[in-house]
């Protein structure tokens, strides 16, 4: 295999993994009401169909990032792809909602192995001058998967049933494993002698789990209910404990010394706030069209396509600009686009909302996200030593996923918190909710509050991105 072709062959392998992991999330966002109705799931169980995957994936991204740095990335990536494919097949046979939730958690382990190794594999294979192109193509593939995911998910669940939303992942995974086995080079780990911080990881898992439990329960049970109070206390206590553990750990889960570098710290903070702001938009819009406008899953899937078209456009544009303009400028401009999109959704969401305005809002959020992600990721990966890239990417992915899981729980909590008890499950029931006009007005109010919250979170992301460096970004070998 000629050296000049290897980066592109490797990119074809990682693209299949990204395609698989992204399809898994985007198809289920549209299919959720059908899954909920099939199992007659409660509001809390409905939340955890999504949250179980996101929580486990978030924590184990860092665990596997360290393990990959120690033992090498090829075997870890291929094992993750194989495990994800097998569990996707089993998800379609789940006999009840709690078995499905457990399988989703197991599926998340494979997803974490895929995601934590993708960006470091690309970063190691591509020369610095072409890295921006490689990363932008990686994001473009994720964008295409996000684009076709809601449409494919809606089509499958509408014509074949919800089980095919999981079984559809299987052929993609099989092709990815076979192609990766013959293509990827075995590269030894570069952090020999280091160990996994199991105590830190377990503490983080249960701490974040407490927060997510509280957010998922508060919309149904109220702030003073036992699960909510217990979840908040668990989160606060374990967060304090976690920082003490990491402060004294020889091989910490999170290397806080990396955050002494201001551009690195601000880029990661921008990643978190951007993910916290925009991750639940597709889910909310897909549920909105099914609950309020009584659309079927396929039609609802078509109506969330603009956001992923926007990500594709933004990724293509920024791929040509990363070598000319700084990460600070490009990332901040991208977030401004997202901010305008959030403003439009907050203003225009409602009963019989104009498809043009809702689509425009999603398109701008997508373009802004596409412009933001590539230079911001490149900035993070190139400001750390080569042997720490697995850990750095793990932290970036963890913060992005943590933002996504909190965004999902928080936005659904806000929407349901304004509803009376008998309506709280209606958000997940699609066209089967049978709402009267007064009910619909309450749901719209919840949506407006949720999008307003996302708008303010985007402003925090803008501030973090802009403040990453007050001087000219000259620390890297080439401009980003």
Automatic annotation (TrEMBL):
Pfam families tied to this protein: MFS_1 (PF07690)
Intracellular or extracellular location(s): Cell membrane
InterPro entries, per the entry: EmrB-like, MFS, MFS_dom, MFS_trans_sf
SUPFAM superfamilies, sorted: MFS general substrate transporter
Domain Major facilitator superfamily (MFS) profile: 10-473
Transmembrane region(s): 47-64, 76-95, 135-158, 164-184, 196-215, 221-243, 264-292, 304-322, 329-349, 355-372, 404-423, 443-467
UniProt membrane topology term: Multi-pass membrane protein
Key words of the record: Cell membrane, Membrane, Transmembrane, Transmembrane helix, Transport
Family, similarity comment: Belongs to the major facilitator superfamily. EmrB family.
NCBIfam families: efflux_EmrB
Protein name, UniProt field: EmrB/QacA subfamily drug resistance transporter
Organism: Neobacillus ginsengisoli
């Amino acid at each position: 295999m000629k050296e000049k072709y290897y980066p592109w062959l490797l990119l074809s392998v990682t693209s299949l993994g990204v395609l698989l992991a992204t399809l898994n999330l985007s198809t289920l966002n549209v299919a959720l009401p059908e899954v909920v109705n099939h199992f007659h799931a409660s509001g809390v169980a409905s939340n955890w169909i999504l949250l179980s995957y996101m929580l486990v994936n978030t924590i184990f991204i860092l665990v596997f990032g360290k393990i990959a740095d120690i033992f090498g990335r090829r075997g870890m990536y291929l094992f993750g792809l194989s495990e994800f494919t097998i569990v996707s097949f089993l998800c379609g046979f789940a006999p009840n909602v709690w078995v499905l939730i457990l399988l989703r958690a197991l599926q998340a382990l494979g997803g974490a192995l895929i995601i934590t190794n993708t960006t470091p594999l690309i970063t190691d294979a591509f020369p610095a001058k072409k890295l921006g192109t490689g990363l932008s193509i990686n994001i473009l593939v994720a964008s295409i998967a996000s684009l076709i995911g809601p449409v494919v998910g809606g089509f499958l669940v509408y014509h074949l049933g919800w089980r095919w939303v999981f079984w559809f992942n299987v052929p993609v995974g099989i092709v990815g494993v076979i192609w990766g086995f013959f293509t990827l080079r075995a590269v030894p780990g570069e952090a020999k002698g280091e160990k996994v911080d199991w105590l830190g990881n377990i503490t983080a898992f249960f701490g974040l789990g407490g927060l997510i439990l509280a957010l998922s329960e508060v919309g149904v049970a109220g702030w003073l209910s036992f699960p909510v109070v217990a979840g908040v206390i668990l989160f606060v206590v374990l967060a304090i404990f976690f920082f003490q553990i990491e402060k004294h750990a020889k091989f910490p889960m999170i290397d806080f010394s990396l955050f002494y570098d201001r551009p690195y710290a601000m880029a990661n903070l921008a990643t978190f706030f951007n993910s916290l702001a925009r991750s639940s938009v597709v889910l909310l819009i897909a549920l909105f069209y099914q609950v309020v406008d009584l659309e079927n899953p396929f039609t609802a899937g078509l109506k969330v396509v603009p956001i992923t078209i926007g990500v594709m456009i933004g990724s293509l544009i920024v791929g040509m600009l990363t070598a000319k303009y700084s990460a600070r400028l490009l990332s901040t401009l991208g977030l401004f686009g997202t901010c305008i999109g959030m403003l439009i959704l907050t203003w225009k969401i409602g009963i019989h909302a104009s498809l043009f305005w809702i689509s425009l809002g999603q398109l701008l959020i997508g373009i802004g996200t596409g412009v933001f992600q590539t230079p911001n990721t490149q900035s993070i990966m190139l400001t750390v030593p080569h042997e720490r890239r697995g850990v750095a990417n793990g932290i970036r992915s963890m913060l992005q996923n943590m933002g996504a899981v909190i965004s999902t729980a928080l936005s659904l909590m806000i929407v349901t918190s304004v509803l009376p008890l008998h309506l709280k499950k209606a958000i997940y029931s699609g066209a089967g909710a049978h709402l009267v006009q007064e009910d619909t007005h309450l749901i719209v109010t919840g949506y407006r509050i949720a999008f307003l919250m996302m708008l303010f979170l985007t402003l925090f992301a803008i501030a973090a991105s802009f403040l990453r460096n007050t001087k000219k970004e000259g620390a890297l070998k080439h401009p980003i």
